[in-house]
Design goal:
The complex is a heterotrimer. Chain A is mainly alpha-helical. Chain A is built from eleven helices and no strands. The radius of gyration of chain A is 19 Å and the shape is globular. In chain A, about 45% of the residues are buried. Chain C folds into two domains: about 120 residues, Glutathione S-transferase Yfyf (Class Pi), Chain A, domain 2, CATH 1.20.1050; about 160 residues, Rossmann fold. The relative contact order of chain C is 0.15. Classes of the chains: A mainly alpha, B alpha/beta, C alpha/beta.
């Protein structure tokens, strides 16, 4: 029989405080838990924790739950939550900061395509300055589940025949100027 | 300058328990003070404000012939008055006293003991130097005119007026609308007892009409306020109703006789849900029971070509006078009670809820009118097309608790939402859903009312509604308004189709509150409600003496609290009137006329219009009753001709020297 | 803009799946005698992916683009893709508000001198509904359309249009005699990249949008974002197979319909690039009967 009981030693309030100091996350402690964010979020019905529950978890310092959730990856950054929140909390920014932390600590589900896409995107643009949609999707599929390519075949074919699928590998000339040459703090 | 007798100063350093003593070394402070010039004795004591503490002062004045007192303790806001009284009882002029704040300005804001003590020493030294220059001053007295002006004829104004009138005072009750009654006249039943609002209100309204001590002016506004506390000269503009109140018998036949067989003008009392004629009475029990003619829609006014059947119906009473002019009344009152009330939040400002877009989204006040038997649908709760709703959603916190609109909680909406849930269910049998964030039911009988609603099987869903939409995902949602909400307690997102949505709109200050404020020279807080003098201990007083607040103009509240506040404001006014006079603070400015060159700089600078120009002598003069002692004119005068009691130059320079004495 | 020419940031999409957007945008601006100068050596905006990896890297990408825009002397930078628009706009705002992102040594500065703009807002503010009305060269004989604004043009910044119930696209199209429907889902998210990563979820969101547009009587959807256009356009046959409902709805860029109405060359509008609704497109976008080819 499963037991769900949380001991206070599992909570990390210091981490919660640290999250609240990240840019965009200032309103964390003002949350009323009203649920307007979840009510308007188009993806909340697919999430393991609704946006409101993520805020509740983060606020109480339940770091593992928040970072391992599927919620943060399903967030499409549509900003509906931020605009509806009566406390004007930038929930989207909170989701981004949790995504970054999950990436850095490797706490995301291994074959979940969304973080893999983000990593491949970052690598590609970091090297070439531009993204090439075809190669990006290909790399993501190869790293997660190559079979999805079969499902995408029809769409891919439609794009090719309308001249919308470029196989070129775009790049910029002055790649060195892409990132400023200064030491960077981790998010 | 009076002859300088030998100055003999007593210094008292208060421990204030550990509030001061924990950080400031009070013993060494007292020792230090004892060595300062002119100081005859210096003590430290645990609680100077206590009776024994004050006794010490009184005794020392007598025994040691002290003629100046310095107390180093808390803020003058708290105990300056206490100690000045102690001096008075001890036989000294109370203004031979100076208070040093070594708590809020030293022990409570610093942690380093040595530095805090040193600062306290400087402050005490400054006070000792200063107090030597203090002059004896007397408090002035202003007589209070016994009449009272009450602005606003809602339940707050009505209750205050009746209380004062019953106490034998003459009251002018000025109301902007054509009838008194305010918002309460629009309600159907009141929570938590479900008393009929009109049934409990109209007897009071009639009492106002009948009371010999109340002069009721409806359809009138205050346009100008001159004078000062105890002697306000107020100008009231009485708008023409075009029906003479003294001649009208209230038969209302003129309305029946109007050429408009069909009413065409949106009826404001019913919030536009029904129509009225150009000649109308706001509601059946209106007080005064006298119709009003609306010049913007009356044919006779617009074209001059009406058969004026109304005048004919009035017959030989001749009460209708379409040539009536606005009339100005000038009155003198001693005190004013502001009871101007509130307005409801405009639901158009939250477009997500579809108000104005979807016809079946209503505000709570509109639904009050629907539910009311004397309302536009004779008490039938129906949709715009006449159908009965089968499901109704009540959305809490519209325009409240929201950084995007208003931050505050409007206090009454949870209760009235429960009430409406009950009434709508009673009238229609529909399934009712209340969508709330928190249930706020603190008053007497309120929690029990909530329990009752729960047992009536009204749905209570904890989740703030994000959107009301007509987007249908399946056939059961076609033609309905869908509310998508997270049911935070059950733990999932739900789509609930309803026929009618009721928005529990919050309360906000009236749009013209700033103008009213300026007329009466009072303050408001950042959200716009009028500001009380102290949120806990003086909720009906303002910072202007003689002006009091009652009801929602001071902040959102329900009827019980409004009536209580109205009674409190009446009591405060009564206290002032029966005392007969007000004592003024002597820290006022005065012009040394020999030095005044008549440049008038001070007049334009004074925020309280307290300085006037005396043409005969071509000099400025300060009205000591209006003067608040802000010091602006004193600083601005280019000739240095204005002086201020308790802030004379020698006093200030002495204080400055004292502060630097340990530098 | 410098002497009537706007800086133009295409972004990766407009060179790939969204090429029809670029084609029609250029054609429309030509018809209105407005200049567009593509930013030299522009780099990817990072879209939403970069922000999931490294905040500073994400802002650096846009900072580079904005700096180059300023150096090129452009006062305005038009970014048609919603994600690019938001990335640039948010960078400006956040580097201002949170100096610690910039690293404290000023290496990443906010370029407030450049105005980041979206072509919808440029059309509405700089050109105006009246001028559109007067410039109509072809009279619409197609069906009613649903204007779909998507998310990132109207949230969180409302300079392009207000968040709830935006109307600028409707008004511009109305001025060009194109009738629009009352589309309640006009700002509901299309899922963005979810169709590629979490396919079922993404396609379901797309299905909802298409179905509601049809339910309200629209025969086409008009968009402002290349990812929205792709999502709504590319999966209709799949939706037909799984739901049995035949939608076949054209998904057009507002620059395509406006371009057509204002007389731009039809071949330059990228209409052949549509995947769904091709039959309707062929019917609606014919040249006017007595049109002279210039």
């Amino acid at each position: 029989m499963q037991r769900e009981l949380r001991f206070q030693r599992e909570a990390d309030p210091e981490w919660a405080r640290q999250v609240s100091e990240r840019p965009g996350c200032e309103g964390l402690y003002s949350c009323l838990q009203c649920g307007a964010c979840s009510g308007t979020c188009p993806l909340s019905i697919y999430m393991d924790f609704t946006p409101r529950r993520i805020v509740a978890l983060v606020r109480e310092g339940f770091r593992q739950d928040a970072l391992r959730s599927r919620t943060i990856w399903l967030c499409a950054s549509c900003y509906s939550c931020a605009v509806h929140c009566p406390r004007q909390i930038h929930i989207t920014d909170l989701m981004y900061s949790l995504k970054r932390e999950a990436m850095q600590t490797h706490l995301y589900p291994a074959r979940l395509p969304i973080p893999v896409l983000a990593q491949e995107f970052h690598k590609m643009v970091g090297r070439r300055g531009r993204s090439s949609e075809f190669w990006l999707v290909l790399r993501m599929a190869l790293r997660t589940n190559p079979l999805v390519l079969l499902g995408m075949a029809r769409a891919g074919w439609d794009l090719i025949r309308t001249g919308r699928l470029s196989l070129r590998r775009e790049r910029i000339r002055d790649i060195r100027s892409l990132y400023p040459a200064t030491p960077r703090e981790t998010a | 300058m009076s002859e300088r007798e030998t100055v003999r100063i007593g210094v008292y350093v208060c421990h204030c328990g550990t509030n001061i003593a924990a950080t400031v070394d009070v013993k060494s402070l007292a020792e230090y003070a004892g060595l300062l010039p002119n100081v005859v004795l210096s003590r430290d004591y645990k609680y100077m404000c206590s009776d024994p503490g004050q006794d010490l002062i009184r005794q020392d004045i007598r025994d040691r012939q002290l003629n100046r007192i310095v107390v180093a303790s808390c803020s003058p806001h708290l105990h300056e008055h206490t100690f000045r009284t102690a001096l008075k009882v001890g036989g000294l002029n109370p203004f031979y006293f100076h208070m040093v704040n070594i708590r809020e300005q030293a022990s409570w804001v610093h942690e380093n003991r040595a530095q805090a003590t040193r600062k306290a020493k400087n402050l005490v030294s400054a006070a000792v130097q200063r107090v030597a220059f203090h002059q004896p001053l007397e408090r002035g007295r202003v007589a209070i005119q016994p009449d009272v002006l009450i602005v606003g004829g809602g339940i707050a104004g009505i209750h205050a007026a009746l209380t004062l009138a019953n106490a034998g005072k003459h009251v002018f009750l000025v109301e902007r609308e054509a009838t008194i009654g305010g918002h309460m006249a629009r309600f159907d039943k009141t929570f938590p007892t479900l008393d009929c609002a009109a049934c409990i209100l109209t007897p009071k309204m009639s009492a106002v009409r009948a009371h010999p001590n109340i002069t009721l002016w409806t359809y009138s506004e205050v346009t100008k306020v001159d004078g000062y506390v105890g002697n306000y000269k107020v100008t009231v503009l009485r708008q023409p109703r075009y029906v003479d109140e003294d001649l009208c018998s209230g038969c209302l036949e003129c309305i029946e006789a109007c050429v408009y067989k069909q009413a065409k003008v949106p009826d404001d009392f019913n919030l536009g849900l029904s129509k009225r004629r150009p000649i109308y009475i706001p509601f059946p029990q209106a007080v005064p029971q006298v119709p009003v003619v609306d010049p913007e829609t009356c044919i006779q006014f617009k074209s001059g070509k009406c058969k004026t059947t109304c005048i004919a119906a009035c017959g030989d009473r001749h009460a209708i006078n379409l040539r009536m002019e606005p009339k100005e009344e000038r009155i003198e009152v001693g005190t004013v009670i502001l009871a101007t009330g509130f307005q409801t939040f405009d639901a158009h400002r939250v477009p997500y809820y579809g108000y104005g877009k979807y016809p079946n989204v209503y505000t709570a006040l509109e639904v009050e009118r629907l539910v009311n038997a004397s309302g536009p649908t004779a008490g039938e709760v129906v949709l715009r097309d006449g159908r009965r709703p089968e499901a109704v959603g009540i959305v809490h916190c519209v325009g409240s608790r929201d950084e995007n609109t208003h931050r505050w909680c409007s206090r009454v909406c949870c209760m009235y939402s429960l009430k409406l849930a009950h009434l709508i269910k009673e009238h229609t049998g529909a399934e009712i859903f209340n969508f709330y964030i928190d249930m706020r039911t603190p008053g007497k009988g309120f929690e029990e009312f909530y329990q009752k609603l729960l047992t009536e099987r009204v749905h209570f869903i904890r989740g703030r509604v994000a959107e009301v939409t007509d987007w249908a995902l399946d056939p059961t949602e076609e033609g309905k308004l869908v509310i998508r909400v997270e049911d935070t307690l059950a733990g999932f997102v739900r789509r609930i189709p309803v026929d009618m949505v009721v928005l529990a709109t919050g309360l906000e200050p009236r749009t013209d509150a700033p103008e009213v404020r300026r007329l009466f020279n009072i303050s408001c807080a950042s959200e716009g409600f009028f500001l009380e003098r102290h949120p806990k201990l003086a909720p009906v007083n303002t910072f202007t003496d003689g002006i009091f607040l009652a009801g929602c103009c001071q902040g959102p509240k329900d009827i019980p609290d409004t009536v209580a506040q109205a009674g409190a404001a009446a009591a405060e006014a009564l206290a002032l009137i029966d005392a007969g006079y007000l004592e003024t603070e002597p820290n006022t400015a005065h012009v040394e006329e020999e030095k005044c060159c008549g440049c008038k700089t001070c007049i334009s600078m004074c925020p309280y219009h307290a300085v006037a120009f005396v043409d005969e002598i071509h000099k400025s003069r300060v009205n000591e009753v209006l003067c608040k002692g802000c010091g602006t004119c004193v600083a601005a005068c280019p000739s240095g001709a204005i002086r201020q009691n308790l802030f004379e130059d020698d006093e200030i320079f002495a204080e400055i020297e004292g502060v630097f004495s340990n530098a | 803009m410098m002497s009537g020419v706007y800086g133009y940031f295409p972004g990766c999409s407009l060179k790939g799946t969204g090429v029809a957007y670029e084609e029609s945008l250029l054609a429309l601006f030509r018809a209105l005698h407005l200049g567009l100068a593509e930013l030299e050596d522009w780099n990817c905006c990072g879209a939403t992916s970069y922000m999931s990896i490294d905040e500073r890297d994400a802002f650096s990408l846009s900072a580079r683009n904005l700096t180059m825009t300023q150096k090129a002397g452009h006062r305005d930078l038009i970014a048609p893709c919603s994600a690019c628009y938001l990335a640039l706009r948010k960078t400006q705002d956040y580097l201002d508000r949170y100096p610690k992102i910039a690293g404290g040594n000023g290496s990443l500065t906010s370029i407030r001198a450049v105005r980041v703009r979206h072509p919808l807002e440029v059309l509405y503010t700089d050109v105006g509904v009246e001028r559109i009305r007067k410039t109509v060269a072809r009279h619409w004989h197609g069906g009613r359309v649903a204007c779909y604004y998507g998310c990132q043009t109207v949230r969180p910044y409302s300079e392009v249009d207000r968040d709830h119930d935006p109307v600028r696209m409707d008004e511009l199209l109305g001025a060009a005699e194109i009738p629009t429907v009352d589309y309640s889902l006009k700002t509901k998210c299309c899922g963005g990249s979810l169709t590629g990563t979490t396919h079922d979820v993404g396609v379901r969101l797309v299905y909802i949008l298409l179905k509601e547009a049809a339910r309200k009587g629209a025969e086409a959807i008009v968009t402002v974002c290349p990812l929205c256009q792709y999502n709504l356009d590319a999966y209709q046959s799949e939706i037909r197979r799984s739901s049995g409902e035949r939608l076949d709805m054209p998904v057009l860029y507002f620059t395509q319909v406006l371009g057509w109405a204002l007389g731009a060359e039809i071949e330059s509008l990228g209409l052949a690039r549509a995947i769904s609704g091709r039959k309707r497109i062929a019917q609606w976008f014919q040249p006017a009967e007595k049109e002279a080819y210039v």
